[in-house]
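User: I'm putting together notes for a lab meeting next week and I want to include a structural view of one of the chains we've been expressing. I don't have a solved structure, so I'd like a prediction I can at least talk through. The sequence is below, exactly as it appears in our construct file.
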Amino acid sequence: MTTFIWILFSALVLLGLFSWLLSKYFTGKAQSPADVTDPAEQDPETDDDVCCGQHLVCEKDSLMYQGEEIVYYDDDELDAYKGKAADAYTGAEIKDFEDVFYTLQESDMAGWLRSLQLREINLPLQLRDEALMIVSERRQNIQ
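Assistant: Thanks for the context. Below is the predicted structure for the 143-residue chain, given as structure tokens.
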């Protein structure tokens, strides 16, 4: 009877060892508790192209107000249009917006629109639909 118990115990230990080796092989490495970090402690902006996954909706592509920090996209000259109505821009003023708009990377579009909101600068109506379409397409591609 004791021989049977030792064989059963040895089989369970070997099965556990085999399972551990398989998990180590498929995950790349076994993580010790010291290697595991709390997701809340991780910097969500470590990779600019990927959302951090810590929020229900990715805040990177959100157009909603997220705080006081204003990020400039080499567009300081647009501060002159603070408070101007979206339908009141002249052709030359729209060109100022287009110069920035068409040089932005697609991934920067939501941040730029958020920056304009924080600075109380209305995007000209002629560019608004195109900008919102780019942000919408980017969200669909990420999901």
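A couple of points you could mention at the meeting. The chain has a mean pLDDT of 77. Helices lie at 2-27, 91-101, 109-118, 125-142.

User: Perfect, that's what I needed.
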